[in-house]
Amino acid sequence: MYKSFSMELAGRTLTVDIGRVAAQANGAAFMHYGDTVVLSTATASDKPREGIDFFPLSVEYEEKLYAVGKIPGGFIKREGKASENAILTSRVIDRPMRPLFPKDYRNDVTLNNLVLCVDQDCSPELTAMLGSAIATCISDIPFDGPTASTMVGMVDGEFVFNPTSAQREKSTLALTVASTREKVIMIEAGANELPEDKMIEAIFAAHEMNKKVIEFIDTIVAECGKPKHDYVKFDTPQELYDDMVNFITQEAMEEAVFTDVKQVREANIKEITERLTTRYEEMNPDWLPYLSEAVYKFQKKTVRKMILKDKKRPDGRGMTEIRKLAAEIDVLPRTHGSGMFTRGQTQVLTITTLGALAETQRLDGIDENETGKRYMHHYNFPSYSVGETKPSRGPGRREIGHGALAVRALVPVLPSEEEFPYAIRTVSEVLESNGSTSQGSICASTLSLMAAGVPIKAMVAGISVGLVTGDTDDDYIILTDIQGLEDFFGDMDFKVAGTHKGITAIQMDIKIHGLTREIIEKAIYRTKEARTYILDEVMAPVISQPRPEVGPYSPKIVQIKIDPTKIGDVVGQRGKTINAIIEQTGVKIDITDDGAVSVCGVDKESIQKAVEMVKMIVTDFEEGKTYTGKVISIKDFGAFIEFAPGKEGMVHISKIAKHRVEHIEDELTLGDVVTVVCLGQDKMGRISFSIKDVQ
């Protein structure tokens, strides 16, 4: 049965149609926010997937260019693989939803969001987040929702909720907060060095807004929700678990995981698993399919008990202690910039490459305000970094997400195009991983950018804190600088990057049903302490200020401004003039519509030569002024001189020498470089020049 529900949300109408479309999905919500339209569906398989020990959730966010009245480019003329924005949106939808499904649910679930129409003032990403929550809540799929999400911007020092396109352009904050009824479950933020107390205020302002949306969702579920279906529960047989604990012993498991060397711990667990396999092959073969899950469960309980009750971390550190840190620059001799950051067994090498503005990445998506990326960060996580072997198939969603997090962290401190007219690419290569490589890549990128001579406004560092919770809200421990095991068995990975002044990026992932305000505040202030230490004690001693200029192997860029009406003169017919300058000097030239000309090259003399050519082309000849040019043509009546590609003048035969010239070839040959003086206009209105009258 078709029903429609509406509420006012941040000054615009949110309408949810149930039963209107996609009736065969387990749950479907036809979402309208302003003129933005998204179809959100939730579907689940009838049976669990065999042979897996995880919940198989897939989240898709599909951008269709018809939603903004565009036809896709290229020859195929249809949408291809998901854009980076679509992948990042899928991740931000996934993160608050995943913890609310049953942990032992093994049925395949797909949350699909099809963007059908876009109103730039009403975010399709936010609409999809709300739609996924509503579609799942009204479905028969087990889910402990609802959740709601709110975006927060800051314009002129004031918070704005679900900002419009114009507000997003001016905003110094891009915060997304997802909540359950009582707690915050997901935070994603980019900010312009926002102080910690202001960020906390924004998070909980969004949380209050989410509570109102959840009340709205409750009314939809009350009228349209289906009963949740039963499912096959996958849990370790209690008899197996008890026998395993008695056989291995709690003390032996603690000894196995209590080490600061990842490889040693993995070898210990492998040895325990092999002993158990041998035991159950004879004792009870039916238990073998559950063995991996049972060992995981035993490890998890052991690690959590050690941290929460015994106040001991697996590697012996204190709760606020950071692993051993190291920073280096100039690791690679001929790249434009390089920096390496090591934290325990996590090591990241970042390489900076500078290029002309023409190398800015062009984007063709549904966000009409974002057409290009001048700063690109790519993050690579090879299998050898964790001691595994598998072929490289290109970046996955995780790698794309970590790269985007670094971009968000560093963009606020990058110089403007006017200050530094370069396209900038940083690539973070993870060389070793044992937790929080994304934050290591932010530190390494800062070192690399400064080493490359990029005049960033402040150093940025990142750190991650974790969490282990007990049975009550006030029974918890926050861990500074979590390693892989603490992330794997803990409840939270709270990543915060920033400068001394404030926060530039946040990404919070949790595995429980939300965080209290007290935990969030403590986590944020804990990251500030750790970040300050990294900036002052580890990074600053290596390089405290960006180098005053780019390195010898970097391209040099000189930017000048010309009259926009002269752009056609510089470009020439079909690009003939500008291509001639490029061919003669070996530089790259970019011209923007406002007349900004950027000349890029490695050799300073070639750059200056190209700049002079451009200036010559756009400058009108002045009577009495001298110019230097090359003889390009000789006629009976005179010689033609080229001052710059497309900029020529003629010296009449009578103006070549003080004596009478019978044949021009007696005085000049093609290719001669000569100095002339401008005589002004002749009787026919042409500009004429003289060699003999040069003083």
Automatic annotation (TrEMBL):
Catalytic activity reported: RNA(n+1) + phosphate = RNA(n) + a ribonucleoside 5'-diphosphate
UniProt record similarity statement: Belongs to the polyribonucleotide nucleotidyltransferase family.
Encoding gene, per UniProt annotation: pnp
Primary residence: cytoplasm
Annotated Pfam families: KH_1, PNPase, RNase_PH, RNase_PH_C, S1
Cofactor(s) the protein requires to work: Mg(2+)
Domain annotation S1 motif: ranges: 624-692
Function as written in the Swiss-Prot or TrEMBL entry: Involved in mRNA degradation. Catalyzes the phosphorolysis of single-stranded polyribonucleotides processively in the 3'- to 5'-direction.
Subcellular location: Cytoplasm
GO molecular function ontology, one term from the record: RNA binding
Stated name of the protein: Polyribonucleotide nucleotidyltransferase
GO biological process: mRNA catabolic process; RNA processing
Keyword Transport found: no
Keyword Flavoprotein: no
Species this protein is from: Variimorphobacter saccharofermentans
Lineage, broadest ranks: Bacteria, Bacillati, Bacillota, Clostridia, Lachnospirales
UniProt binding sites for Mg(2+): D487, D493
EC number(s) reported in the record: 2.7.7.8
This protein's UniProt keywords: Cytoplasm, Magnesium, Metal-binding, Nucleotidyltransferase, RNA-binding, Transferase
InterPro entries: ExoRNase_PH_dom1, ExoRNase_PH_dom2, ExoRNase_PH_dom2_sf, KH_dom, KH_dom_type_1, KH_dom_type_1_sf, NA-bd_OB-fold, PNPase
NCBIfam families named in the record: polynuc_phos (TIGR03591), PRK11824.1 (NF008805)
GO cellular component: cytosol
